[in-house]
Amino acid sequence: MTVERTENPRAQIGVTGLAVMGSNIARNFARHGHTVALHNRSVAKTDALLEAHGDDGDFVRTETIEEFVAALQKPRRVLIMVKAGAATDAVIEELANAMEPGDIIIDGGNALYTDTIRREAALRERGLHFVGAGISGGEEGALNGPSIMPGGPTESYEALGPLLESISAHVDGTPCCTHIGPDGSGHFVKMVHNGIEYADMQLIGEAYNLLRDALGYDATTIADVFSEWNTGTLESYLIEITADVLRQTDATTGKPLVDVIVDAAEQKGTGRWTVKSALDLGVPVTGIAEAVFARALSGSRTQRAAARGLASGALGDKPADATQFTEDIRRALYASKIVAYAQGFDQIAAGSAEYGWNVDRAALATIWRGGCIIRAQFLNRIKEAYDADPQLPSLILAPYFREAIEAGIDSWRRVVATATMLGIPVPAFASSLSYYDGLRAERLPAALTQGQRDFFGAHTYERIDADGKFHTLWSGDRSEIRA
Ligand code: NBP
């Protein structure tokens, strides 16, 4: 360990913002042999890190931004890990004033991608490279290998890539880090990653709810079901930790911990951002949207308290064959998950087209195989699908996914129908199935919608048998004219 105040530019990377994420990433860099300059607004955090983990590698302790910048080799590389929003802007401004053209500022926080686009453009004017890097994996991933999604200029990746790749997770020897594209692309794909994470968690929650309320299983039995599922196509980090959470016993009451946790889910905002962006892009991310709304519904405590005990209507019978129904839930979960990921990847394609990012979805699936919260076997299949056809219109059309859905479709319908008859909410299962049925439909009721729009707003419509736009003179003689 080297702990010193120095003017010698010997650090390969600097990390400012040494809360849980920043300190773990700084340690990760040091453990991989990089000399790391440390900085935090309040020096106490820097000293706490050095006190507890100074032996992890070679650190340079600094107090001021000037000292911090002076400790870095050129081109200087600084990773910002502070609270997203105004704090990030404040730190960028301080750094930019102290840095020189050609230096690289990396924002590893959960920034909104439009902020990243703005920041990249402003810093480019000043000759600085700005890299918005999505980082996933939580505090454990930050320390032992996260999935890293850096955007920004291509030339900055040349100076930065090897450093980031060295600390990222690796799967089959491949780093879970790749250059995503220009300006805000890294933070955009990280945002959609989090949106997919919301959908995945909601689907798992619905499966748990069905096992509990339709089959009457206790938490430990459900944990066993999830552990079993984790040995097959559903194998993933989220399924694995679900079993762990369900197996946890509360020390105070002796009950399963999940049964004493208040059932009101919170959110920090990336799911909401994903849905807002999808609305702007016109991409139907129904699974993610239902997941965000399901959390909001769970947190609507006033309404829930007032509505408790409202009529359910006549309910159906519980499934007679628990084993069969458990298998139905597994298949419904897998099919719904495929839809949620298909929607998320559609949003990435739409964002990429809107902003001219040219995001490689196969490469993205590759770096999500490890390190991040949605890491799963499944990502290999997504990578293969986009490798085989980079222009694939929807993941559900790739042969592997098409077959998986076909194998599960009967189960999926049974689960949604049974849940409905039992009064058990399954918003994500049901909306994913409706999305699938909507996509494959010969004809949608949108024709009627177009007729109504033309009626009240003269918005025009297209005909199935002629080119161009048409309008019916609804308040006149109801003849049709070309618009
Ligand atoms: P927090 O998001 O809690 O931020 C705390 C850090 O921000 C501290 O170092 C604090 O300095 C610094 N800071 C603040 Br607050 N305002 C500042 C300002 N005006 N100027 C300078 N520094 C300021 O830390 P975190 O949970 O480690 O997350 C860091 C970033 O990584 C966030 O953007 C987060 O969204 C993102 N992220 C988090 C996770 C996760 O699992 N937690 C995962 C992926 C990404 P102080 O010590 O002086 O108060």
SSE layout and pairings?
Layout: E1 13-16, H1 20-31, E2 36-39, H2 43-53, E3 59-61, H3 65-70, E4 77-80, H4 86-98, E5 104-107, H5 113-125, E6 129-136, H6 138-144, E7 147-150, H7 154-167, E8 170-171, E9 174-175, H8 185-213, H9 219-229, H10 237-247, H11 270-281, H12 286-298, H13 301-307, H14 322-355, H15 361-367, H16 378-388, H17 399-422, H18 427-440, H19 446-457, E10 461-463, E11 466-472, E12 480-482
Parallel strand pairs: 1-2, 1-4, 2-3, 4-5, 5-6
Antiparallel strand pairs: 6-7, 8-9, 10-11, 11-12
Helix pairs in contact: 1-6, 5-8, 8-11, 8-12, 8-14, 9-10, 11-12, 12-18, 14-17, 14-18, 15-16
Bound molecules: nicotinamide 8-bromo-adenine dinucleotide phosphate.
Largest sheet: 7 strands, mixed
What's the end-to-end separation, in Å?
A: 76 Å
Oligomer: single chain
Low-confidence parts: 1-5
Strand content: 5-15%
